[in-house]
Amino acid sequence: LLTAVPAPLLLGLASATGSVPVTLGLAGLALTSLALQVRRLRSAARVVTRHRDNLARLAAPAVARLVAETDPFTLRAGREQEATVLFADIRDFTRLCETVSPGDVAAFLAEFRCRAAEAIEASGGLVDKFVGDEVMAVFGVPHAALDDTDRAIAAARSLAAAMLIWTREREQAGMPPVRIGIGLHRGPVFVGAIGAERVEFTAVGDTVNVARRLEQMTRTTDCDCVVSEAVVRDATSCEARIVAVQPVRGARAVLRLFAIALAT
């Protein structure tokens, strides 16, 4: 503390011989300490506010509104809630990229992400992130609703339809089709701003992990969309057939897995 105190205050305190100068010197030390604490708090607040502003600029519109309207420290604290999570990725993505240039791969991914985001957001979903050829979306964030699962299923069907339209366009140009696999799961998630210098607003937890595992299982179950029993139970109308009863990595119990038709 003393190293941060201005020299005049220390000199005044050291040369003081009476009670009044000493009292004034101690008061000066206390005020300086308080000023330093206020300065540190303001600096921390500016950092948090900057992270919030960055999130608001980079996030999806629904998240941007939430970030802009929420206290930065509340964003950091986050919350736990129920949500329906969707994962989708492109089948045989590596093979699709083998005969094209890196620039063409980038253009392909940009087109996929644009079409996927449009389909998901049209059903009221929130695109949480894109990782390579994979997209994660959540339904019920930032605000939960009774039809979150129904909207997630609708988004899965819209996403499949968007890929079908894109495939027809590509086939006319002599390019291979685009097929996707989709996984859906419902359960508790933690939602909040996570990270230190690189902060992202995201949903995490076992529910997210299981949804991703279900998407991966579309490759071995010969189904375009695999969903958990929690999704089937929460949906108001969902024609589903059971495809497996087995443990899923990330889940705490053996799950009954269902396939739903994506064509309407």
UniProtKB/TrEMBL annotation:
<dbReference type="GO" id="GO:0004016">
    <property type="term" value="F:adenylate cyclase activity"/>
</dbReference>
<dbReference type="InterPro" id="IPR050697">
    <property type="entry name" value="Adenylyl/Guanylyl_Cyclase_3/4"/>
</dbReference>
<dbReference type="Pfam" id="PF00211">
    <property type="entry name" value="Guanylate_cyc"/>
</dbReference>
<dbReference type="GO" id="GO:0005886">
    <property type="term" value="C:plasma membrane"/>
</dbReference>
<feature type="transmembrane region" description="Helical">
    <location>
        <begin position="12"/>
        <end position="36"/>
    </location>
</feature>
<keyword id="KW-1003">Cell membrane</keyword>
<protein>
    <submittedName>
        <fullName>Adenylate/guanylate cyclase domain-containing protein</fullName>
    </submittedName>
</protein>
<keyword id="KW-0472">Membrane</keyword>
<dbReference type="GO" id="GO:0035556">
    <property type="term" value="P:intracellular signal transduction"/>
</dbReference>
<feature type="domain" description="Guanylate cyclase">
    <location>
        <begin position="84"/>
        <end position="215"/>
    </location>
</feature>
<dbReference type="InterPro" id="IPR029787">
    <property type="entry name" value="Nucleotide_cyclase"/>
</dbReference>
<dbReference type="InterPro" id="IPR001054">
    <property type="entry name" value="A/G_cyclase"/>
</dbReference>
<keyword id="KW-1133">Transmembrane helix</keyword>
<dbReference type="GO" id="GO:0006171">
    <property type="term" value="P:cAMP biosynthetic process"/>
</dbReference>
<keyword id="KW-0812">Transmembrane</keyword>
